From TrEMBL:
<dbReference type="InterPro" id="IPR050366">
    <property type="entry name" value="BP-dependent_transpt_permease"/>
</dbReference>
<feature type="transmembrane region" description="Helical">
    <location>
        <begin position="221"/>
        <end position="242"/>
    </location>
</feature>
<dbReference type="Pfam" id="PF12911">
    <property type="entry name" value="OppC_N"/>
</dbReference>
<keyword id="KW-0812">Transmembrane</keyword>
<feature type="transmembrane region" description="Helical">
    <location>
        <begin position="165"/>
        <end position="183"/>
    </location>
</feature>
<dbReference type="InterPro" id="IPR025966">
    <property type="entry name" value="OppC_N"/>
</dbReference>
<comment type="similarity">
    <text>Belongs to the binding-protein-dependent transport system permease family.</text>
</comment>
<feature type="transmembrane region" description="Helical">
    <location>
        <begin position="140"/>
        <end position="159"/>
    </location>
</feature>
<dbReference type="InterPro" id="IPR000515">
    <property type="entry name" value="MetI-like"/>
</dbReference>
<dbReference type="GO" id="GO:0055085">
    <property type="term" value="P:transmembrane transport"/>
</dbReference>
<keyword id="KW-0813">Transport</keyword>
<dbReference type="InterPro" id="IPR035906">
    <property type="entry name" value="MetI-like_sf"/>
</dbReference>
<keyword id="KW-0472">Membrane</keyword>
<feature type="transmembrane region" description="Helical">
    <location>
        <begin position="276"/>
        <end position="298"/>
    </location>
</feature>
<feature type="domain" description="ABC transmembrane type-1">
    <location>
        <begin position="98"/>
        <end position="298"/>
    </location>
</feature>
<keyword id="KW-1133">Transmembrane helix</keyword>
<feature type="transmembrane region" description="Helical">
    <location>
        <begin position="104"/>
        <end position="128"/>
    </location>
</feature>
């Protein structure tokens, strides 16, 4: 009597999926993912691997300010990438700053996801006046640039609650600001997918079985919208990090005592013409590299989930 073969586990199906097949054959995607994981690990492990704690004022010596990298004349071996104007180790501030930038990027995208999915599902599923109102509201917001919306909202926050309150809750404020500025991208994409999916047989079957609208939207239709959502999320993480960096550079982001990559670039820019180029150069290189690899991963995901343009 023949034995029935056991069904493959979820992990085995994932290993044998087209996603992994194309990933291991794309050197750019693998390299970008490895670099991103390196940045992520370094950011998470910053308290363990950073030479010093830039938040600990007791460990900062102002006499060490503006020291060049260790391989240049005047550099100190303990400060590999040099120090800033306060005497903080540049390598340490980059590690801690990367953690802040990535935290803001992921949380802001999470807020964009929540708002965009709820609004997009509601607009696409219910249609009619609800669809018209929500999409016109999204169109109005899209008519303004993301940075303009972020600047206006951050200025309103500062004027309403004061600079001290804003500095105390700067991370939360930036997450809210960037999340509010970018949700229409998700809403429009989800709505377009829902309009196609809600006409299919499985949705009609769910209605006949008496399932309520929220269950149909979130348990039946939403899983079929995940591919474009995943692609957008990858790109939006890079956009959120750049938005935070731009706001910090303009003085509307994180305070000086909470250095993100954007804040470090802004601080160093004031000293670049005095010869202390390393204060802004190294954080800038890290920011550009991080955004580049995330965008490369987003482009690869877009191609993989669109078989019409993916060449393998």
């Amino acid at each position: 009597m023949e034995q029935v073969a056991a069904a493959p586990s979820r992990w085995e199906r994932f290993k044998n999926s087209d996603f992994i097949y194309y990933f291991v054959r794309d050197k750019v995607a693998m390299f970008s993912f490895a670099v991103f994981l390196t940045f992520l690990f370094a950011a998470l492990a910053a308290p363990l691997i950073a030479p010093s704690d830039p938040y600990d004022l007791g460990s900062i010596n102002i006499m060490n300010s503006e020291l060049p990298p260790s391989w240049l004349d005047g550099g100190e071996p303990e400060f590999l990438l040099g120090t800033d104007e306060q005497g903080r180790d540049i390598l340490s501030t980059i590690l801690y700053g990367s953690r802040l930038s990535l935290t803001i990027g992921f949380l802001a995208v999470g807020l964009q996801l929540f708002l965009g999915i709820v609004i997009g599902l509601s607009a696409g599923y219910f249609g009619g006046r609800i669809d018209s109102f929500l999409m016109r509201f999204a169109d109005i917001q899209l008519s303004f640039s993301t940075m303009m919306v972020a600047i206006i909202v951050s200025a309103i926050f500062k004027a309403s609650f004061g600079s001290q309150f804003y500095s105390q809750y700067a991370v939360v404020m930036l997450v809210v600001i960037i999340g509010i500025a970018e949700w229409p991208q998700y809403a429009r994409t989800v709505r377009a997918t829902v309009l196609a999916e809600k006409k299919k047989e499985y949705v009609e079957a769910a209605r006949v079985m008496g399932f309520k609208a929220p269950r149909i939207m979130f348990r039946h239709i939403l899983p079929n919208c995940l591919s474009p959502i995943l692609v957008i999320s990858t790109v939006q993480i890079a956009n959120a990090i750049m938005s935070e960096a731009a706001l910090s550079f303009l003085g509307l982001g994180l305070p000086v005592d909470q250095p993100s990559l954007g804040a470090l670039i802004s601080i160093g820019f004031n000293y670049i013409f005095s010869g202390a180029w390393w204060i802004t150069a190294f954080p800038g290189i890290v920011l550009i590299t991080l955004v580049l690899v995330i965008n490369l991963l987003g482009d690869w995901l877009r191609d993989v989930f669109n078989p019409k343009i993916y060449k393998g």
